[in-house]
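Standup notes
- DV: blocked on the single-chain target, sequence here:
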Amino acid sequence: MPHLVTLPPLAVALAPFGVGYALGALVRRVGHGVRARRAPAPLTRAQQRGQAGEAAVSAVVRARFTRRADDLLLRFGTGRYSQIDHLALTPHGILVLESKNLGGLLYGAPDRPYWTQVIGPQRHAFYNPLKQNATHLAAVRRYAGTVPVRGLVVFMDRGVFPEGHPAGTVALRALAATLEPLAAGRIPYRYRRAWRRVLAAHQASPQARQAHAAYVAGRVRTRPGARAGVTADTPRTRRWWLPWLVLLLAAALPAPVAG
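- DV (later): unblocked, structure below
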């Protein structure tokens, strides 16, 4: 006489939910991947402030130099890149500018590895921008040869140095007057040739950008005051395997059969 192999009531009740959850998670994951390819990730507030500062510095540089470039990525050693905010070719050589859009009270010295930002009761350490720009200078010199290369760090006016601006830095409001003497004169031919070499070395591939971003993220996670391995933009680890486990368990349950 035919009979049916029955399932436990709990397994029968949970099987449809398990299959539905797994299929829903799969659809969401595929949709998220499609959206991620279509649109870039939203910028953080710090990135938005950084871009605003770079735009302000770029406007001043463009008003005084006909040969300039923004956001160059140069190879600097094996698997390492240097991202340069602004470059300008002047009659006195190549100028490398780093822009910083930091508010509050700022304290630092050229020989200190980290400087301090004070906003109310909070204190934040940030890497010495002069040392950061020194890496950019070295990357440019790698391609510029014997042409003089000098650097300058520009701070937005929302930040104040109570002890005065360290040597090698300038406020945005004083940038135009600082650049004025560098714009006068004729640019030698060998300077223009070196400039072309630097521009030709720009790394525009997504792989180079990703490698540089990973390097910077590693430095941010290990800076003083930062939690090891965690930043404000570090995504949470998702248990991608959970919906698949539910689906496999649901598929492994015995189905009613005639016997």
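- Follow-up: Residues 113 and 131 are 7 Å apart (CA to CA).
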